[in-house]
Amino acid sequence: MREVGSLPQPAAGGIGWSQMRGRSAPLISNSAMIPVHQHRTGNPEGNITMARNSIWIALFSLLAILSPAPTKAASAYEIDAGVHDTLDRFFYKIGGARELAHKAVGILVFPSIVKAGFGFGGEYGEGALLIGGHPAAYYNTVSASFGFQLGVQERSVIIMFMTPEALAQFRHMADWKVGVDGSVAIVTVGIGGSIDTNKITSPVVGFILDPKGLMYNLTLEGSKISRINR
């Protein structure tokens, strides 16, 4: 028995669809015909399922567009170049930054930390620890954040170790979590857009930058910094 509502397929070498249109014989027998409105609404559950599937497909398509493409791990040369570019921009835009860097015993620089998400967002970046102006080790930073987020945000982070003890404690650990294994005091710029180096008393200080300059009302709490091989 032919399935209700199905159309017969033309036999090989037989009459084509254009020839069959001119014939008066019905394509479906009278006994098998169903009113159009019954055929369209006879399966409400199926219509609901199709609507739900369409919504999920649209959401997954949106996520695919918004999610950043995976990036390959940077080489030591690429990290070093980004570190020096970030420091040059930092010294140029912020008065007193170079003087403070000269007082630091170690400087950890993450040139690019990318933040992206839709409902659940995460941050990742790679950088280098400079001691005496030369790279001593390479690190990555990972953190997670919750909330409704759209788009991608990129920023740079500079962490200065002002005492030998603070630097030694950091280097002694393979994984160092801000707020747990040590605290980082975020520095803000005072009047005139300069850092008053005489007021820096914390053993570890941090700066968060975007392309426009220093960013405020942000924290590094919860970020995990781990040593990597490059």
Polypeptide structure, described:
About 30% of the residues lie in helices and about 30% in strands. With about 230 residues, the chain is α+β, with helices and mostly antiparallel strands. The chain has a domain of about 150 residues. Strands 1, 2, 3, 4, 5, 6, 7, 8 and 9 form a nine-stranded mixed beta sheet that branches. A hairpin with a 2-residue loop joins strand 2 and strand 3. The chain is elongated. It starts with 16 loop residues before the first helix and ends with a strand.
Summarize the structure.
The chain has 230 residues and is an alpha+beta fold.
Got a strand count?
A: 9
Tally the helices: 6
* Overall SS class: alpha+beta
Distance between the first and last residues' Cα: 70 Å
What gross morphology would you assign? elongated
- Using only C-alpha atoms, the radius of gyration works out to 31 Å
The low-pLDDT segments are: 1-8, 10-41, 59-70
Which sheet architecture does the biggest sheet show? 9 strands, mixed
Order of secondary-structure elements: HHHHHEEEEHEEEEE
Tell me the helix content.
Answer: 25-40%
Strand content: 25-35%
Q: Kindly report the average pLDDT value.
A: 74
